[in-house]
Amino acid sequence: RLCHQPQVIIGDCALHGWDSEQGEIGFGGSLIPEYWGQGVMAAAFGLVTAFARDTYQVRTIRCTTTPSNRQALRFAEKLGFVSYHTAADTVILKKILE
Length: 98
Description:
Blueprint: E1 11-19, E2 24-31, H1 40-56, E3 60-65, H2 70-78, E4 82-86, E5 91-96
Parallel strand pairs: 2-3
Antiparallel strand pairs: 1-2, 3-5, 4-5
């Protein structure tokens, strides 16, 4: 939701798969295409990351996508994620928080 349109849902983002022993959590999300390229998901990621770090003392965030999802891969790399594991149908990227 946007601040100026709180009644309209434009996407989602969530944390999942909390591993307290490793201090690692997964991040995922989607956004309606008309909002792509406006910094919305990057801003949401920043808020969710701060929440995870402050609330759960997360040290690493991971995301998973497919090798063919070039937009997701570029977005993750732009946010500082690096490829951790690649298989035929899955790419796992991780970002170590400061």
